[in-house]
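hey all, quick one before standup. I had two proteins in the batch that finished overnight and I want to keep them in one place so we stop losing track of which output belongs to which input. First protein below, input sequence then structure tokens straight from the run.
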Amino acid sequence: MQILAGLRVLQIGPGLAAAACGRAFADVGATVSSIAADDDTALAVFLNAGKPFAAVDCTPAALAAHAAAADLLIVQGTPQELAARGVDDTALRKLNEAAVIVLIAPYGQSGPDANRPASDLTLFCASGIARMLTGQVDDLSEPPTRAVGKQSAFIGGLAAAAAGMHALLLDRLPGQTGATIDISIQEALATLAMTELTRVGMQGKVWSRRRLTDGNGATVTILPARDGYVAVSPRENHQWAAWLQVMGSPDWGQEPRFTGKPDRIENWDALHALMSEWSRTHDKQWIADAAQAARVPSFPLQEPAEQFASAQLAHRQFFRPMEIGGESVLAPGSPFRTIPWEQQTPAGVEKAVGAARKAAKKSAGAGSPLPLSGIRVLDFSWVIAGPTATRYLAAMGAEVIKIEAPGRGDPGRGMGLHAVLGQAKRGITLDLRQPAAVATARALAASVDIVIENFGTGVMERLGLGPEDLARDNPEVLYISASGHGRSGPEAGAVAYGTLLQCYAGFAGLNGHPNASPRVGMAWVDPMCGLKLAFIAAAGIWQRRRTGNGMRIDFSMMEALLWTMAEPLLAAQLQGPLQPQGNADDAFMPHGIFPSGGADAWVGIAVRGDDCWRSLCAVVDALGPWRDLGLEARRERDVEIDQVLTDWTRARSAKLAAETLLAAGIPAAELASSLDLKASGHLQARGFWQDSDRRSLPGLPWRASFGRQNGPAPGHGEDTDAVLRDLLSLTREEIAALRTSGALG
């Protein structure tokens, strides 16, 4: 179902992040045209496939004609670059007063660093993500790394798509111009590490790159197998007990040093050695299958090429054929399956329910400065992906009602994440094991626009809160299910966490240095999926406004990750088997993260082209004799060149090295920690950090001309009584009876 059919998007000029943004819109039905788009790499061809070329060159006449007809304009570049090309916000607004304009830049359109040259590598350094991408290390002489597959373009593009889609929902007043969205790729990347940003903002503590105890292995670990590696995550006590049984109930499993999770963390090296001794005697798929049969989350580490034989992806028809350079390949498709409701509700009920809700929303949203004012969301999600998405919905004006179980509630509370991801939401507790709680949840769902959940496949249906159940009472609802593999197919019931999917997809295996053992790394896929979910929620509302129809949206985290891995997936078909490259690059040289003066201090440097190389030679005197070397000649002397550059960076601080190179127009960035991001004058100038109750909380990965909704995160169950009173008109006595029954915990 092409839910954005009728939406007109114009992608202006080159830039992979702009192309990724346009790809997100095209994948769900928008008509995306392009002017002077990239087509020089396989990745660019994939991102721009199916977008009719409005014009090959961005001439003023072509730009004026096509911009005037668009609902959304996307352009990428620094403020200086956009002004020089005549496509900055001011110029585009003259061409179309009503359109939403999305501007994507490495460091945004404002702030002291806005015009800094940048690359995929240097943005990983500047955002702090390179420090934590592959997890903690034993040896601090190991350089940090960027992610495989030009991920800064995908993350920047997804942030642009999410914010741009919401901006399209804004009700403009007569004479009011369209919204403008300012995307900083640095900020979009930085927010993927929301746990770390929250920690430094609230406690002033920074993540250590050196491995301490288990290096998070007690949550997810990679074990060697007879034919590769397998990832397993027995993080809960019952999962650990089941995992011991999978391993044959070894005697050492009963030793006091491994009894509880804190014990396993403290004695991690010994535990990992014992598990590895067992795992080396089995194939990786056998281990994963045995663990899954015991309901222990586990997947084998795979290479990208193995994905093409996946029965799960074949069932969901994820890959789509396309041609690149005269060769037929399979390319990633959309991670969404949209299913319109069958209208089962009697017409009289539908009319009564729908009319009351529409009247209330019209009153709430009339003249509102935020896109989702008047939209109500019932949020059953927990931890990272779903709460990240609903945080964005709340920031855009939605009334988000977060449902938590009694007791500890969302694990995000224990991680500190709730302080950020729970902002501007209302929180209630329901014990969904109780029939009265389920009935209350169904009653609440009848009055909302969006329901979002990320339970295991079948859980909501068994509770009586499945999509068909709720659509009978509310046929206009958007019911969004997020899961590891989607709600259909042979692997739909597999127990999955985001970090395990990073292993299964091949992401973890390709991130890192050649010949190094793979590591799980940070939780990358969950916050990335939060952007995808926020985008599709807004797209669903856009479609419903035009048709009046609700729908079910089935979202696969695995497919979303593979969508961002288009470059290695295509390369596996066009070039053959892939290996980790570290910070090496096929198009640039030198290109890497080099040590500088100070403890664990590094600077990322990306030399893009011969002119940039000659500029580097003018800065680093020892490189001067090689100033006329072309790319291939530089590759032949890469060891010598890297050593000269290392000697130069070691002799000065990372900050001085980066500033010297930037002054010469060379993309460079000091490897930032979360503390550096907190102290950044550029991020402060852009309002990225918001001060609240003597603490600083990280903001959104975009700036919007219409602002955002702020508010504190609710306490556990803080709004239960108020929500039941306001939405269901329950009396004090009725609420007390629910509490006595245990329905409210």
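OK second protein, same deal, sequence then tokens:
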Amino acid sequence: MCIRDSYSGLQDIGIALPLTGRTIPVVLDHHVQREFGTGALKVTPAHDRDDYEIGLRHDLDRIKVMDDHGIMNEAAGEYAGLDRFACRKKIVADLEEQGLLEKIEDYDHAVGKCYRCGTVVEPTTSKQWFVSVRPLANKAVEAVREGRIRIYPSNWYNTFYSWMDNIRDWCISRQIWWGHRIPAWTCGSCGQLLVAVEAPSACDQCGSTDLVQEDDVLDTWFSSALWPFSTLGWPEQTKELEIFYPTSVLITSFDILFFWVARMMMMGLHFMDEVPFRDVYLHALVRDKHGKKMSKSTGNVIDPLDTIEQYGTDAFRFTLTAFAAQGREIRMDEDRIEGYRHFINKLWNAARFAQMHIKECDPAITAVAESPADLALPHRWILSRTNETVREVRRALDEYRFNDVASHIYQFIWHEYCDWYLEWIKADLYGDDTTARDNARGVMLQVLEVILKLLHPVAPFVTEEIWSVMPGERTSIMIERFPEENQAWRDEAAEASMELLMGIISTVRTIRSEADVHPTRLIEATLLCGDPDKRDLIGHFSGAIRAMVRAEQLHILDSGIVPDDAGHALFQDIEVFVPLKGLIDAAGEIAKLAKERGR
């Protein structure tokens, strides 16, 4: 009998157990909850995990009252031979008959059941095989503390240390049908236990050949812990073992950091005297869009094959990469997969547009990018942005921030390369200036090659297909070198100038959109800019600006007054206004705004 350790004076007495007459001791322990029940708890150290721990703390007897088939044994007294459920009913009836039952109450209880057949699982004690892991754990902890093994994200270090510092001996035996049998034999003549690598032919104690191998099999995680070197021919010193052990990085889910990752560390350091891997990246678990775990019974499972059939493999891969933030869960939303399918289509259409202009080109045309100082501003800008994207992607890969990899690639391809650069160079591609056209084609091809290489690890199929039809003799993109930074492309001044021009264009487009000016209507725009250098820059590219905002006139002034009938906005220190008279229904717009304000 166990009572809360705040009671005193009761621990020196014994209590007679009803129905059996067995005397049991009273012990004090913090495990008992005073708020639940009477504050006293009968413990069965042989039939409950928590009770087993209490028994260890107080050196209690571990009495098994049923066998492995759920039948009560001789320790159950007069109930021996009864099935466990029948026994429980009879005990309740006997207690009630003898006036020992005060009341019966219902309460919630977590009852373990077999996941296959639903049978209630009865905890019990049994003879098992254990590995003393404290010496192994100490080596693994030392390797992590010294930085020979790094864990990403870093917030898992504390969890790892907590598990390892409180580690217990590892039970490696399992009572299941399939697995690696434990290499232990018992002599039927003298009872001698033999453990050996090779099956013994006779007992080394008495010489008997009556040897029976252990029926238990090794824990799955024990076998898995040997994986980094057992798959490479160990214990033989093979060429594969020499080349591939240790490996670079292990990628797995955070929920098996202890079950698998830590055990591979321990086994690798013990048997190979070397860490099995340098980095461990722990990814999140994929759940549904509401954060619930996927299960067939709930009906929220996303079949990857169905998803691939609907959206494409590359779109699905990119979605998972974009979601792979360093956290505990990924919420899978099919709407996001649809969005990234549009992204893959965007790249495909951009490549088709580029192919129209470069299919007959000599690939050497990309050499124009080797001297960016001689190129026009849009080319210098896109090369600088390409260099920055390569830098950010490589850094994110080195730090296992795969979602940032996807984000940098997405933003660059969609918004900078497609939305801005390809639009900006159309005048050169379709113009009569052959030098301007060749420069545009060369830079466009060069940047597209970098884009495909950056994206290939995430979206291998579309990038391989596009790469195969680009001009020149090409092998598979997968054996190309991954892009590296090119400092010659870095041009902060070009980026600042293009940011100004793109900001002005976006501001005028916003005014048009908010005023609901029809896309085909030509407008007149005015810029008030007091900085002469900025006025010169804007004036140099006024033709491109007019084409992109559909303006027949663009006035660039150092000062002025904004008319009352104009749409007006500010970008940096430049005032932008667009006269709207004759372009919109003023009365209708006023009525619409009044309605919105009223709502």
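Flagging for whoever picks this up: The mean pLDDT is 90. DSSP finds 20 helices and 21 strands in the chain.
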